[in-house]
Amino acid sequence: MRYVPLDTPKPLSVIGLGTWQFGSREWGYGPDYERQAAQIVRRAVDLGVTLFDTAEMYGFGRSERILGAALGDDRAKVVVASKIYPIFPVAPVVEQRAVASAARLGVTSIGLYQVHQPNPLVADRTTMRGMRALQDVGLVGEVGVSNYSLRRWQLAEAALGRRVLSNQVRYSMVDRRPEDDLLPYARQAGRLVIAYSPLAQGFLSGRYDATNPPGGAARRANPYFLPENLERGAALIETLRQVADAHDATPSQIALAYLLRHPNVVAIPGASGVEQLERNVAAAEIELADDEDAALAAAARAFRPITGVAALPRLLRARAGR
Prior knowledge:
With 322 residues, the protein is an alpha/beta fold. It has a domain at 17-202 and 259-287: Alpha-Beta Barrel (TIM Barrel). It is 42% helix and 12% strand. The chain contains 13 helices and eight strands. Helix 9 (234-246) crosses helix 10 and helix 9 (234-246) packs antiparallel against helix 12. The protein is globular and about 55 Å long. It starts with 16 loop residues before the first strand and ends with a helix.
């Protein structure tokens, strides 16, 4: 395993484990998945994964409980990251919710506590006042944000008066906007971009096409899995396969390796089982050549999916089974 070269109390593995799926039914993983989740966590620790990301809203707290129980005595050895959903993120609420998350996780300190979304009505100065108080008493180690623009990230840091270590954003080969400003800032300022959905919820795995769409409510709600977009993405998937063949790897591993070629980036893919986790972790050791990176970037730029308002009628028809 490789680790991010940042000054942090504990090393941060470039591949972490995202646990949105833990305790959530919308992924369609079945009733046995909670037991598998514990196995995934234990194997991740064995493989050197040190960043485990969850949130109070994942399974309405079940993800935190499952993760904390699975980590057991290793909770103190890794970076346990959670997130507050900012419905009313004033300082006293931030403090109360952190206490609740820590209790569910079974930790005395949350290694990285993040604001899950920017609140359009509540300024970060009151949210960060709560975060600062949590740091001062030792209940929170590092502070992070999620889904923040560069400007709001910087404003949050100014409000905290200390570094806001990370910004967790959607980042994959088909969601490359963080490369415009967030990644350069993280590299220059010694901060971290945490990439969630780094495989675009499996779109980049090559497992799906227009005749074989995925199951599960979460993926069915993702416009990338519309038949038209699966067809449009065929050339990108083929490029991933060609590079993967050269490395005796899978398309998913190459998609992760592409992200990790950028400094100050950590990817937190989920895993449906231990084998998928092991493949994700192995991607940290893949070194892409410059021409491979260029070919992947060109294929990603050429992919023009139907998204936003244009995708909505198609998603509604797909949900209705028409």
